[in-house]
């Protein structure tokens, strides 16, 4: 059977987007969405669902789009996933639902992510609320209270699941805005903050209490949570930055990706002086790393007027970033320096970085990650003149916070140890997301939140 080509998503032109933080992908119109939805084969055994960490009934909502039943499609998606507009924009569908689509055997898979985004955007434009319709039911109130620490994807998901079941949920967030990595880690041009606010605001319909500016471990003693609530969920992510630890890391102008992106995304540094927190971006910026965060940093620096070099120690084929993000970065003019690694940062007499000494690399045998290990090439050192460096090489757990939960078991890497339902070594404490797995995806964290909600429900009902 002939299958039409995938319908491309509308995008903002390159020459326009490199000067703006406005969203790059513009999504589907109604006509384009229907056309793309009609490519779905409605498989009797939908392998796409197996690839979705939150188990969305994908064939059903796509069929509803093809029939122009957009409201029905929204209710279908929302009954499985409380954050569809977010997931439709930032989930790595190519390795999850779309990666298991049978159309991969004869062409490109159905653009499931863009269709999910379409139904959410359409519904919000039409003013639909999450509880509209029979697919999202809220049960009668229960007398059990759950504290959720952290308002990232895992915390929001566990809260929405428990809120629907009628439990009393309170979310404690350290920052002045809710959303965790969704607001401080992902730039506006990939995920507009108004979208995040809209989907989080729907939680209020579930009678969930939101506490901003409330760092657990400082403003609230974790032992107080253990005494006051029937269960506690830890979903604080893994936001402590890693550094390469090479000479010159302490120079002015050397940032972690966390600080750089937080200043830009959460504190709107790109709108300084309209907003109070500036960020220094020189004329030439070196970004170290090859993941999605590195792409976000590089593309943000570009939009702030810099010439940007992406320094990565392997080849493009080994880059962990999504293909779409790599292609967008290349289209926008990011200069890729592959098989290259920094060995030291060089400063001037004022302690400010002025250059990076790099070394060329070659690939050896595969390491524990399955990727070929980069090996330095002796004598290949060279100098790259820059005035800003941003390291985007990963993050790790906040060990200080976890140490304040007496008896909480952690791994040798500092992450929380849980069972299949997210339950920790403290029976009433559950955890999920990056604080358990290390840095992963938004949808993986949401899947962990769903499992933990099931675990908490079982725990609370069995303890009655």
TrEMBL record:
What's a Gene Ontology MF term here? oxidoreductase activity
Q: Which gene encodes it?
A: gltA
- Which organism's genome codes for this protein? Fervidobacterium thailandense
Return the InterPro entries for the record: DPD_II, FAD/NAD-bd_sf, FAD/NAD-binding_dom, Helical_ferredxn, SudA-like
The taxonomic lineage of its organism, from the top, reads:
Bacteria, Thermotogati, Thermotogota, Thermotogae, Thermotogales
Domain Dihydroprymidine dehydrogenase, first and last residues per copy = 17-127
Protein known as: Dihydropyrimidine dehydrogenase
Sequence ranges assigned to domain FAD/NAD(P)-binding in this UniProt record: 145-449
């Amino acid at each position: 059977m002939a299958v039409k080509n995938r319908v491309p998503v509308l995008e903002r032109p390159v020459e326009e987007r490199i000067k703006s933080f406005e969203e790059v992908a513009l999504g589907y119109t109604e006509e384009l969405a229907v056309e793309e939805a009609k490519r779905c084969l409605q498989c009797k055994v939908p392998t796409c669902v197996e690839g979705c960490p939150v188990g969305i009934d994908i064939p059903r909502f796509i069929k509803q789009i093809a029939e122009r039943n957009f409201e029905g499609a929204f209710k279908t998606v929302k009954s499985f996933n409380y954050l569809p507009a977010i997931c439709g924009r930032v989930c790595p569908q190519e390795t999850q639902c779309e990666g298991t689509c049978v159309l991969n055997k004869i062409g490109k898979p159905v653009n499931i992510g863009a269709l999910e985004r379409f139904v959410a955007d359409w519904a919000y434009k039409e003013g639909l609320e999450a509880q509209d319709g029979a697919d999202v039911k809220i049960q009668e109130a229960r007398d059990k209270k759950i504290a959720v620490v952290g308002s990232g994807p895992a915390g929001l998901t566990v809260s929405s699941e428990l809120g629907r079941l009628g439990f009393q949920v309170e979310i404690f967030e350290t920052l002045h805005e809710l959303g965790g990595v969704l607001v401080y880690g992902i730039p506006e041009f990939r995920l507009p903050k108004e979208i995040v606010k809209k989907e989080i605001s729907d939680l209020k319909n579930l009678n969930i209490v939101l506490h901003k500016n409330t760092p657990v471990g400082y403003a609230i003693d974790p032992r107080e949570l253990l005494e006051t609530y029937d269960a506690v969920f830890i979903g604080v992510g893994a936001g402590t930055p890693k550094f390469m630890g090479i000479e010159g890391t302490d120079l002015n102008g050397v940032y972690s990706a966390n600080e750089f992106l937080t200043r830009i995304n959460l504190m709107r540094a790109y709108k300084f002086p309209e907003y109070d927190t500036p960020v220094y971006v020189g004329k030439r910026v070196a970004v170290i790393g090859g993941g999605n965060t590195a792409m976000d940093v590089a593309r943000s620096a570009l939009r702030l007027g810099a010439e940007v070099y992406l320094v990565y120690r392997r080849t493009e084929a080994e880059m962990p970033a999504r293909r779409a993000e790599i292609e967008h970065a290349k289209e926008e003019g990011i200069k890729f320096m592959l098989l290259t690694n920094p060995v030291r940062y060089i400063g001037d007499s004022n302690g400010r970085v002025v250059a990076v000494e790099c070394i060329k690399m070659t690939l050896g045998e595969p390491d524990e990650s399955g990727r070929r290990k980069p090996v330095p090439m002796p004598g290949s050192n060279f100098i790259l003149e820059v005035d800003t460096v941003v390291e985007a090489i990963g993050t790790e757990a906040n060990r200080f916070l976890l140490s304040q939960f007496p008896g909480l078991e952690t791994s040798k890497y500092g992450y929380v140890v849980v069972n299949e339902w997210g339950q920790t070594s403290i029976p009433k404490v559950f955890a999920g997301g990056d604080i358990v797995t290390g840095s992963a995806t938004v949808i993986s964290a949401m899947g962990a939140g769903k499992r933990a909600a099931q675990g908490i429900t079982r725990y609370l009902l069995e303890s009655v």
